[in-house]
Design goal:
The chain is an alpha/beta fold. The protein has nine helices and nine strands. The protein has a five-stranded parallel β-sheet, sandwiched between helices. Helix 6 (207-220) packs parallel to helix 7 (244-265).
Length: 295
């Protein structure tokens, strides 16, 4: 963050012409045995958004297979500064050569479900009393307990409605603020379908705050069957004008929040732990270097 912002500010002060040539920044790292680590993919997402904001700033991540020699790495670095590669953002090198992550369209033929499941929509119909429930792809347990971070947000409410439509369950809604009138109406809606709802105030990015919430939860629901992490926030602004505190405020719920939720439930035999992401982490987005990184 700090390096890129300082370079942006320095470039913005230059006059047009030769003095305002492109900046090329390479982020070098070694790959893990099982491929790209999430932290480095996050940096690549940051780079995509940054290049969208400032086309004259070329930022790229370069992953090396640990087996590559120092001489090979030096040669790679030299070639990666070539202008012909400016559109490549996430690059991996191994004994097999150079690979670049790109997005391509996959055309589904004959309505095949080979590449994607049918989406869950509000029109899906289910029978709450039927043990074999249509579209119950998560195997939701009647009477089970499910924690939703960002529970009073749009995504959290969508998930809660879906769970309540599948079976009578116990739903824990985590949010940073108290429910308003509309939220109470939403909670009543879920309870009207036969589910029990517990709302807890917690900042999932703060371990102590989340731990206090789980102390309350464990007294009422000692067994948790699933966690859905849908909390997130945006503070859109160009990196040139973004403060580090706002950058951290966007990253914290996603990154530290994920760690805190995992630690709070690691003794539970969960059926699933779902993390919500964003397409900005793959495509980048103007003004969202922080949000793309976080997701």
């Amino acid at each position: 963050f700090n390096i890129c912002q300082r370079l942006l500010k320095a470039r913005s002060l230059r006059k047009t012409g030769a003095a305002k040539q492109k900046i090329r920044l390479l982020f070098l790292h070694e790959t893990a045995p099982r491929g790209q680590l999430p932290a480095y993919s996050a940096v690549a997402a940051f780079c995509r958004s940054l290049t969208m904001e400032e086309p004259g700033f070329i930022a790229r991540t370069i992953g090396f297979d640990p087996a590559l020699s120092v001489a090979d790495r030096a040669s790679v670095i030299d070639t990666e500064f070539d202008a012909s590669r400016d559109k490549d953002v996430e690059v991996l090198y191994s004994s097999a050569g150079r690979k670049v992550r790109r997005i391509r369209e996959i055309v589904r033929e004959n309505n095949s479900d080979e590449f994607a499941r049918d989406a869950i929509t509000d029109s899906d119909t289910v029978n709450n009393n039927n043990a074999s429930i249509h579209n119950n792809v998560l195997n939701i347990r009647p009477g089970g307990c499910y924690v939703i971070s960002g529970g009073l947000g749009s995504l959290g409410k969508l998930v809660a409605r879906y769970l309540a439509s599948l079976a009578s369950v116990n739903i824990i809604l985590l949010s940073r603020s108290s429910p308003n009138a509309g939220d109470y109406q939403f909670i009543a809606e879920l309870e009207g379908q036969g589910s029990r709802v517990l709302h807890c105030i917690a900042d999932i990015g703060e371990r102590e705050s989340l731990a206090a919430a789980f102390d309350v939860i464990s007294k009422k629901f000692p067994v948790i069957n699933g966690v859905i992490h849908s909390a997130g926030t945006t503070q859109d602004s160009l990196l040139l004008r973004k403060s580090y505190s706002s950058f951290q405020a966007v990253i914290n719920p996603k990154v530290q929040g994920s760690i805190n939720l995992y630690q709070a439930t690691q003794q539970q035999a969960l059926d699933f732990f779902i993390f919500f992401s964003s397409i900005s982490s793959v495509l980048g987005n103007l003004g969202q270097t922080d949000y793309a990184f976080a997701n």
